[in-house]
Each structure stands twice: as C-alpha cells, then as structure tokens.
C-alpha cells in the first residue's frame, strides 16, 4: 500500500449567522477597521509546504460546492445554492503540531508563497460567487482577512457546526 500523501492545505469551515473580522486595529486618531458578513460560511485556510497554484482551484471548488449550509427547508446545500456570504480568514495555526508542550509550524508554507496562494484563493472565490446567478441576485459578499496579521473575530454560528477538510 502506498503511503498517504501529506496534506498541502487545510481548511476549517463554519456556518455563519453573522461574522465580523477586525482587519486593522485601532490606531491613534483612527478606529479599528472591520469586514462583516451575514448568513453564509466562514473559511479558515492554511497552506503547507508543497502547495502550489494548481491546488487553489480544487480547494475553491470543493469549499464553495460542499453541502454544509442548511436552507430554510432544513436541507443541506452549498453556500452557492444558499446563497450566502463568505468570510475568508488566513489561519496559519491550522498547521500546528504539538511537540512537548509547545506548538510547531514547520510544515507551513513560506510566508511570501502563502500570501501569494491566499490572494489567489480569495480572488478565485470572488470570481466564483460573482459568476453564480443566485449569488449575484442575492448580492452576496466575499470578505477576507489580511494575511500574516493578528485579527479579532466575532462570530455568531448556528451550531457549532465545524468541518475540517484537508487537500
């Protein structure tokens, strides 16, 4: 039997009733900057060493089409079919592994390459939702966090309803 291929990315999905993400902290003379979504999906994404541009479309297709969102009839549908907003959060800690009493992140992709893949991921999600007639008609939003920065999240979920998917 062949050895399992190591994961190249990990995504954590949560249903959202509403979510707010602080993308810039308050500074002297200015308030914090937030992005906000309503009903939809929060996607936390982490890329590992070995991830490349060819992986991004597969991840986007899977995450936007997997039937995790509950519609008004109690049926599970994709976020595209709901239709719902999407909040994308870069989450390097999804790559952590315990070593003793500490976490290590040796499998995470280099920061520059991670930023490049994260940007491609966000852009492709935006394009997919913009190309979907239901999403366009409903005026769904794609919002995202900033890569490599600490951010504050406020999330109301109809669960907990959390799924971890590896690629």
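-> sequence recovered:
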């Amino acid at each position: 039997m062949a050895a399992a291929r190591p994961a190249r990315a990990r995504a954590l999905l949560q249903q959202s009733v509403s979510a707010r993400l602080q993308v810039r902290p308050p500074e002297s003379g200015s308030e914090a900057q937030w992005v906000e979504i309503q009903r939809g999906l929060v996607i936390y994404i982490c890329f590992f060493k070995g991830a490349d541009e060819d992986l991004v479309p597969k991840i986007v297709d899977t995450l936007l089409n997997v039937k995790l969102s509950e519609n008004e009839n109690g049926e599970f549908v994709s976020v595209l079919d709901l239709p719902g907003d999407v909040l994308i959060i870069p989450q390097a800690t999804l790559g952590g592994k315990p070593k003793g009493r500490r976490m290590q992140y040796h499998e995470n992709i280099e920061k520059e390459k991670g930023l490049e893949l994260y940007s491609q991921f966000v852009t492709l999600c935006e394009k997919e939702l913009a190309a979907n007639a239901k999403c366009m008609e409903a005026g769904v939003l794609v919002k995202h966090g900033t890569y490599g920065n600490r951010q504050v999240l406020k999330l109301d979920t109809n669960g907990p309803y959390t799924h971890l998917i590896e690629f």
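The mean pLDDT is 94.
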